[in-house]
Amino acid sequence: MLLLVMREGVRRRKLSDVAATLGVTQTAISHSVARLRALFDDELFIRKPHGVEPTARAVQLAEIAEQVIESAVRMLGDPVPFEPARMERDIRICALDYEVALLSDVIETLRLEAPGMRLHLRAMGREASIGALGQDEADIWLGFARDLPTTLESVELFDEGYRVIARVDHPRLANCTGLDLDTFCAESHVVAAPGGTAGGIVDKSLRSMDRARSVAIMTTGFLSALDLVSRTDLIATIPARLAVGRADRFGLKLFDPPLALRPFQVSATWHRRLSSDFAIAWFVDHLRKALGPMSNARMTY
Asked: Considering the entire predicted model, what is its pTM?
């Protein structure tokens, strides 16, 4: 109320008009002016025959009041529509090589729709990523989100399955139309273990059938597994999107796994402090739409 009286008093130079504008009584305006005079130790409005004359201090304070009122209106009013094309923003993303490869499919549309968006990618696993989100050292983590702290929120981007890969001129598999379990176990494997530890869903599934595979090389990245398989007679079991998208580039032949492997979910996760961040919401929604259900057609990553 005091801010409005200050602004309108300088604008209208007549306290009765101020009362009419604000929809209050002249007595209320007089009380407000008295409080303002006491607060700023200045006459503020000097009485004249046909109204009041604001002092220099009143004019100065009215300008400040105008700024505060405008800020309050913006804060309490409807949010400004988010415009990706006008955004200038860095987005810090935690992801391992598989998720980074997936991002490459959406980079071009991101650049077209939000040319001012800059992505900062950090190679981090689950625990490090959760810590980075909590310390405000990252904005988004892409990965398998499960049992998250209550301070984090996530949205599932897609379900992911697996493919077995071998080079197209593999001496034993080049002419195979399908891969049976005996052949799978007899071949030597590259195992991609992003967490740095051996074992995983493939070995657990094999153990449940009293079977095992021969592991020749263990690497921490799926992209290095692709490269190794393309240059050797080794095979590997990797996420389906990565296999389908890179098969032609690496000269690979793809097989369905000859054993049951539970699919996993790839999610985008962020800290709750960013829940009202329009840029983060737009970015995650863009990923969700772009990385939706994989078609039978070959995708490019």
From this structure: 0.68
